[in-house]
Amino acid sequence: MSLWSRIFGGGASRTPEPRAASQSIGGGVLITTPQELEDALRTGAATSAGIAVTPDRAMRVAAVYACVRIRSGVVANMPLHIKRRVDDRTREDASNHPLWVIFRRRPNRWQTPSQFKRMLTAHLLLRGNAYAMIVRSRGMVKELIPLHPDRVECKQRDDLGLEYTYTRRDGRRVTLPQSEMFHLVGLSLDGVHGVSVITYARETIGLSLAMEDHGATVFKNGARVSVVLTHPGKLGKEGLEFLKSSLDDYRSGGESEGKALILEEGMSTSPLAMTAEDAQWIESRKFSRSDVAMFFGVPPHMIGDTEKSTSWGSGIDSQTQGFVTFSAEDDLTTWEETVGRDLIDPAEPDIYARFNRASLVKGDIKTRWEAYMRGRQMKVLSANDVRALEDMNPVEGGDVYENPMINVEPDKKDEGNESAKAA
């Protein structure tokens, strides 16, 4: 039976007996029956705010979604090159290597490289682990099939090797050796399982969800009192019911939206300032947003929180550079080293994976070209090196490493003086 059939089926199905297994570090629960598994994925541990937080529900929080989108987008949009060491000083693109096709063309039959990298990085951020089944043919990697982390259980055997158990949709459990699994690991406390950000940020995210639900309910029902209606006399039960019905129709929007409220029987209105409770609710949302950004290692200004920082000058630039250095670089290194461990044959020590980090400034043309000029002045880049980085064809004589600011043509006037002296 092929590896694909073992993992995704193809034979006669059977009804499995309910069995469950827990993962002590990663926090995932694996249950063999499909219905119980789906129920487990939909529920999560309740927080102090009374909200059950799961990775999928956490993504409904705007700050969480923004953080995951930004960090996974950096990995997704950065080209991953497969390189070959020719000698101690020379490197070249290994464009004839099978992994080049995987990471530059098509990792599997339905995903593009950016989709694949974005998906696995999102799994890594939300669940601490990301998995893909390795499909090989004649020793060469042909496909990487992403597996949902909640359906994968990782165990370390007595011989210290890793073993993976995947729960299929029909409830069958399939065991895969370490050689057949591409496993990205985030922050780990045992060296085997990555810990989920959601596990430790559950209270903060639960508070955000509770405040979102509270705010939605308040604005849906128009419950916050912003104006007081004053009647000179006393309203009877019938008059109170009529006034309440009229206000409900007015607050429902529709054709009444933006129109003035007509009051009868000498009634008047008095506006109310924002209550302390309202102000505290808004301030709590701001603190929650900053806390979520801190958990995911994303500067607050990148998710739209610029209240406590300037939008101009070196402050934002320093924060952005900090994100590149400490958060994005962490994701890139994780991918590069995992490719080297799980996908590159030990018999190919000269092959390695390397992200093109120069693409981080692809959208900043001023910074990009200033860096090119500095590289040319230091004789690190040639004209053709720069043209290659810009996806342009080489030019004749462009492979010379020279400083264009120094190597200039001699002055024709000086040449004439030299000729006169010689005569």
Entry summary:
The protein is α+β, with helices and mostly antiparallel strands and about 425 residues long. It has helices at about 5-10, 35-40, 55-60, 60-75, 100-105, 115-125, 195-200, 200-220, 235-250, 275-295, 315-340, 365-375, 385-390, 410-420; strands spanning about 20, 30, 80-85, 90-95, 130-135, 140-145, 150-155, 160-165, 175, 180-185, 225-230, 270, 350-355. The radius of gyration is 31 Å and the shape is flat.
Describe this protein's structure.
This protein is of the alpha+beta class and 423 residues long. Among the domains are: 227-271; 363-410, no CATH class. The protein has helices at residues 3-8, 34-42, 55-58, 62-77, 98-104, 113-127, 197-200, 202-221, 237-251, 276-296, 314-342, 365-377, 383-389, 412-422; strands spanning 20-22, 29-31, 80-85, 91-93, 129-137, 140-147, 152-156, 162-167, 173-177, 181-185, 227-230, 268-271, 351-355. The strands form five sheets. A three-stranded antiparallel β-sheet has the order 4-3-13. A three-stranded antiparallel β-sheet has the order 6-5-10. The protein has a three-stranded antiparallel β-sheet with strand order 7-8-9, with no helix packed on it. Helix 4 runs parallel beside helix 10. The radius of gyration is 31 Å and the shape is flat.
